[in-house]
Structure formats: C-alpha cells, structure tokens
User: What shape does this take?
Amino acid sequence: MAIFLELFLSGIMVGSIYALVALGWTLIYKCSGVLNLAMGELTLIGAYLCLTYYQWGFPFPVALACTLVTGFILGLVTERLFLRRMIGESILAVIMVTAGLSFFFRALVGFTWGTDTVVFDPPVFPREPARFFGMVFGQVYIWSFVAAIVLLVVFVWFFQRSRWGLSMQATADDEMAALSLGVSAKRVYALAWAIAFMAAGVGGTLLGNINGLNISVGYLGLLVLPAVVLGGLNSVPGAIVGGIAIGVLQNLSDVYLGKLTQGGVKEIAPFVFMVIVLLIRPYGLWGWVKIERV
Assistant: This one.
C-alpha cells in the first residue's frame, strides 16, 4: 500500500508540471480553435533559456522570472511573425503552420544549444530525498510541485479575475459578440501565445531539473496532448485535472504493467486511456458539447 501511495503522490507531483504545459495547449485552442503542434518545442526553448540564465550566474528564481519575461516576448513575436497573417485562413492551414514551427524551433534549439544532455549545475534542488510516513520522494519533485501549483493558481486567477483573462474567455465563447464589445481579437490571440510560451517554458524547466535537459524534453511536451484531450481541449480546469491524471497513470502503469511487457507502457498508457475516454465522451471530460439544430 505504501508503494502505491508513493507512486500515486509522485504521479500527482509530475502531473502538476504536465498541467502547466497542458494549460498552454488549452489556451491557444480555446482562443483560436488551433491545436498548436509546436507546443513541445516551446517547452524545450523555455527550458534551455532558463538553463542559460542559470549558467550566467542568476539565482534560480531570477532565472525563472527572466524565462517568463523572455517567453512572453517570444510568444508575442511568434504570433506576430507567423500566426497573425494566417487570420481568416482555414484551421487546417494554421495547424500546418504550427507543424512547420515545430520543426523550425527544434532545429533552432539543436543549432543553438546542441543535442547532448545537460543538467542544472550546481543542482537547483537538494539531492537528499525527503521521507514522509515511510514514503520517499525526491526533493526536486516536491519543489517542482510547489512551483507548478503556485503558477497554476496565478494563471487561473488571471483567467477568471483579470480584465484580459475575461476578454480571452469572451473571445473564446463568442468572437463576434466580443468584437462588438470592443475586445481586440488580435491582442487576445497574441496574449494567448505569450502565456502559452510562459507556461510551457516553466514546465520544461521543471522537467529539465528532474530528468536532465536534451531534445527529448520536447517529446514530453507532446506527451501532454492526452491530458489536453482528456480534459476537453477548451477547458482550463480540465487541462489541470487531465495533466495530473496522466502523471498518476504513467507512474502506476510503469510499475504495475511494465514488468509484463518489453517496456514502453509508460508512454503508451496515456494515449490508450485517452482513446477509451473519447469513445465514451467524444468531447472529453469537461469539453463543450456543441449542439447543432437544423
């Protein structure tokens, strides 16, 4: 039972990081209807930026704050250069642009930082494990969980209480009505990309502290897709719950099912679970159910 609880709780800790990245996926889809296939690379860029600031001698909290600011600027620039001119084009065309951005960003990361695995040196978090009631957790998991929860609370407050957050929700609910009230859809799209870049960057930084940092962190960003679909694509609470659920599912399946196979269960399980849920609820657990009357 202690092993199950340990796996369950550590899954929640990792899942909270997935929830941060899932928030970026959801935000862009919610505001523009576009599934951003470059999300994994946004995670990668943010992680390498934070590592670079840290190597320059900035304390980790300052490096993380600089990553947030840089991510915000990069999000605005990306939207302005590549996505703004796609307004009015088909959704499929915009998604293909994000696929092109994915390859471009991945190549840019390899060109700038190389492909070897690097780590935060000296380690940001203490390496001694923490023990609670017979369970053992790495402190990197605990502190990453705390950081992810704080940022999730800030983002949720922003969406529900701030003027721009409410404008984004209004645009997502009914773009024409929002435009008639003076909400600028272009600014909302730009802000969505900026916040997605910030959330992905922090998520990538925390994942890089746990596993080391290389090009595969971008794959972990894509692994969050089942969490987004599970939550309903356009639901912020759904993205958070979906991210945590996927983290727990990965941990449990890796230990209890991994011994029965040749490996790979941890990566496959989230997608299998996603397909099963979609067969029962095609709009995910918290997605909007669109009803068309003819």
Observations:
- The mean pLDDT is 81.
- Strands lie at 130-132, 135-137.
